[in-house]
Amino acid sequence: MLSCKIQCFTILNIVIIVMARNNSKNYTFPKDFIFGAATSAYQIEGAWNVDGKGQSIWDTFTHTHPDRISDGSNGDDAAKSYFKYKEDVRALKEMGMQFYRFSISWSRIMPQGLPNNINQKGIDYYNRLIDEVINNGLKPVVTMFHWDLPQYLQDLGGFASDVIIIYFEAYAEVLFENFGDRVHMWTTINEPYNHAFGYEVMTLAPGLNTTGVGIYLAAHNMIKAHARVYHLYDKHYRAKQKGKISLNLSVQWSVPEHKNSTDDKEATKAELEFTLGWYAHPIYSKEGDYPQIMKDRIRNLSLAEGFPTSRLPSFTSEEIVYVKGTADYFALNQYGSYLIAKGDTGANPSYFRDKGTLIEPDNWPKSETSTWESVTPKGIRNIIKWIKEQYGEELEILITENGFADNGELNDIIRINYLATYMIEVLKAIHFDKCKVIGYTVWSLIDNLEWSNGYSSKFGLYHVDFNDPDRKRTPKQSAHFMRNVTETRQIPYNYGIIDRELDEEEGL
Ligand SMILES: *[C@@H]1O[C@H](CO)[C@@H](O)[C@H](O)[C@H]1NC(C)=O
Ligand SMILES: *[C@@H]1O[C@H](CO)[C@@H](O)[C@H](O)[C@H]1NC(C)=O
Ligand SMILES: *[C@@H]1O[C@H](CO)[C@@H](O)[C@H](O)[C@H]1NC(C)=O
Ligand SMILES: *[C@@H]1O[C@H](CO)[C@@H](O)[C@H](O)[C@H]1NC(C)=O
Ligand SMILES: *[C@@H]1O[C@H](CO)[C@@H](O)[C@H](O)[C@H]1NC(C)=O
Ligand SMILES: *[C@@H]1O[C@H](CO)[C@@H](O)[C@H](O)[C@H]1NC(C)=O
Ligand SMILES: *[C@@H]1O[C@H](CO)[C@@H](O)[C@H](O)[C@H]1NC(C)=O
């Protein structure tokens, strides 16, 4: 949140003063490139205890710890999309989008998360939503798990326990059986990295203080649960349902603080392996398993701390093979960048100490209402290139989240600039770097509950009036902008775009 006001004001000035160069402006998005917008169940649905829905860990967390949500709010009502989903779908259609990415609330269709108790009203709701999406000419892209674990399963240990794997598979089976005839793009888990953080920090559910231990167990079981669902689909559903499966991985691009420092350059590599590689290497690399640097560092530190073995669980050789290749494309969530130096920080033990990296203060423009978002468009092109270099040229990449948080202004020129400059970098990745980027998803379709930032951090292309019992939706300027993008398949010429030279000066 450093000197945000000044930074954002600077962006505005640049918008007015500097017109973009032509470079990639006239490059178009390929014919089969798809655009969409995303939401997640807990962040928009509301109806937290309606029609037989069970309690999720985010219900528990926000009810017992309003102090950990910046405005003390919760998702009890949220944007009331459970009742107003038709308007959400209409918004996507108005913007000319091709798909709607939403998530299913596990506890809405299985109140305890168990397969012996299925809530038909929950199934009915998602059937109505999926049909509405399809009847409007859009494709549903469905996330199975976007952090709102049924509380019952958390009581059994949540993702820190491998008990979760069989129940996740049983849940996925219910989804394939009920929705797989119409859903052809699945995401098993959204941002396992961030969900695992609920076992490291207090600000995300379940909010457990098990630093350096719980986080790796949760990650390990999420990767195994994902692989299990991929194989289930392969075995029983793929032939007739013909869909694709992935998991969404998020990453901040990382830049060495001192360009000439070997330490900082190595720390930067470690940072990327400890964030993206942690999940991507077991699934997308040729050799599988966790990145070597994670295995080495965590083992060394664990032994020194008095643990008999590494705190990072290990895969058996069968598991390495079982997990490898269990994604049909790379689903990338990307927002900002970090400036990285070598150094020790965090509790002992902790994930942060294991990384051996420091996130240093930078002077990139920041979102005024998000604690972690910087405006660094080149990062998205760099990370796309990094993925291609690490995991192969043939891998298709779908940008599954990108977007900007502000205070909810309707004339959201900063968001338009953010989206435009990032999409220009995506165009460069496609046309200059020959990367296979197949689509782009804006986070988010509508303003919503932004986890621990509550309702104060607004990402929506559509404004939601949270003081209105009817939660009126209104398109922002960025919604019109996206309409123009999907129509022309270019970044419209009539927008002043932040000059990319700026990034160069700032060290990106
Ligand atoms: C943009 O491209 C046009 C046509 O090639 C050229 O005339 C114009 O000078 C360029 N503008 C900038 C800012 O580079
Ligand atoms: C790019 O597109 C704009 C608007 O359509 C047009 O005026 C300009 O000449 C184009 N530039 C190039 C280099 O094609
Ligand atoms: C987490 O636990 C450690 C000791 O295990 C303690 O020192 C630390 O203060 C706790 N952190 C929080 C945020 O409760
Ligand atoms: C970094 O190294 C390059 C090449 O070795 C050198 O030209 C440059 O001056 C160095 N920059 C800094 C800031 O030390
Ligand atoms: C781990 O410890 C071994 C043995 O002491 C050492 O050779 C190696 O460099 C260490 N690796 C890391 C990444 O710390
Ligand atoms: C997850 O990936 C899907 C594609 O599988 C994408 O459309 C969606 O936006 C992603 N979800 C999130 C929360 O990023
Ligand atoms: C979208 O394009 C139309 C026609 O090209 C233009 O008149 C309009 O200003 C654009 N929308 C916005 C929000 O700029």
Automatic annotation (TrEMBL):
GO MF term set: beta-glucosidase activity
Record keywords: Glycoprotein, Glycosidase, Hydrolase, Signal
InterPro entries linked to this entry: GH, GH_1_N_CS, Glyco_hydro_1, Glyco_hydro_1_AS
Domain of life: Eukaryota
A Pfam family matched in the record: Glyco_hydro_1
Signal sequence coordinates: 1-20
Catalytic residues (UniProt): E401
SUPFAM superfamilies for the chain: (Trans)glycosidases (SSF51445)
Gene3D superfamilies for the chain: Glycosidases (3.20.20.80)
A GO BP annotation: carbohydrate metabolic process
Catalytic activity, EC: 3.2.1.21
UniProt subunit comment: Homodimer.
Family as reported in the entry's similarity comment: Belongs to the glycosyl hydrolase 1 family.
Official protein name in the record: beta-glucosidase
